[in-house]
What does this fold into?
Amino acid sequence: MQNLPVKLYRAAQVREMDRIAIQERGIPGFELMGRAGYEVFHCIKQHWPKARSLAVFCGSGNNAGDGYIIAGLALAAGLTVCVYTLAEPEKLNGDALLAYRKYSEASGMVMPFQAGQIIHADVLVDALLGTGLDRPVTGLYAEAIQAINAHSSPVVAVDIPSGLNADTGNVMACAVKADCTVTFIGLKQGLFTGQAAEYCGEICYAQLAVPDEVFSGFKATATRVVKSQLPRRHRCAHKGSCGHVLIIGGDLGYSGAARMAGEAALRVGAGLVSIATRPEHSGLMNLNRPELMCHGVETAAQLAKLLEKADVVVLGPGLGQSTWAKTLFNTVRIAEKPMIIDADGLNLLANARAAKPNWILTPHPGEAARLLNCTIADIQQDRFAAVLSIQANYGGVAILKGAGTLIASEQQLAVSNSGNPGMASGGMGDVLAGVIAGLLAQGLSLQDAAQQGVYHHGLAADLAVVKDGERGLLASDLMPYLRQLVNE
It folds into this structure.
């Protein structure tokens, strides 16, 4: 798989880069279009070398011009090609019109798209809509997208799957489900979160030989998290120098959450882990993990003694929202320790709003909606805006979990694309909270612990499914892989 750039941009920024490359750097627009077409055709030949026929779906903008270039290259290579057009080709503008005419001069086949027509092709190319889409897809374009998605052949999307919002990753009524997306010049942030994972397939990138100087005038709106090596452990290290994590949670019936968070913190290298839980659980929770120090806690005073010894606090796994939970929450809230607030800790925070610079909040979309007093649909409509709003309102570092987990600090917005659908099972969030706490306890900053915690957590899940698949993956299955990853 290709190593993609780290920096992400909004669609308007990339369009401006394109303009600068043409108007200020003197690269002819048709030459850029030719490069884009070549990159897509090269991708097709790499991924499906036995393909002998191509169906290219073209709309009315420059994206269509790329499509005609691709069709022309395929025709020249001896493939059977048909372009299905949703706009009169002679009404195209500029470089797109020139691309169509060159394809037509080579006796390329063009047919108006009609719903219900039978399409024979080994590979389909989506060149319908570009990155400027700002309204729901309807009419003939929606019918074309449905036809593409219903076809059994693989699909390549040009720059972005048609119907996907380039800034949010949200589907605009309907969108092409591509097996591969070849995107140009700058990576669009919407390709990496929200619903994008279901629609983009493998993402390939082509800079199109645009000079690096063109990018220097643009600040990335987000960055992709990449794995960084953890600091080498000092040869004289001892358990006290590797941090003491305190997990607070495990109300009646929910002891497993705190237990998994505690083991995860140990597996990524925390020196000591204590768990403050219901007295009914304290004698049982560490039966198969005796390294966990479990304490029965009923009062604020009992918890205060444990807080004194801790370097990092995790509040929330299995906490519940009982009077007992609220007592512990109110005790921790005023503490000055670095902390991770998760699960019911977030639900309690939503009812007692506060801001702190030294905590990490880890909501899923439902918890995020409660924190921002809105709906889950509002959160998912623009995940970037949502996580930035949580960080602005509550301080510290905010993590918005989901496909393309987002991590917002005061300094940076990042997205992590490790992980897989097998993680849709109970306990994964508890393990994540423990991973982040364990890294924080070993001296990583809040931002780095959050970013690397999310990335390592997802990567451990990716390793765990290689042999046995996604279905049936348990949160506890991640433990051996977490240890492996933090030692690489």
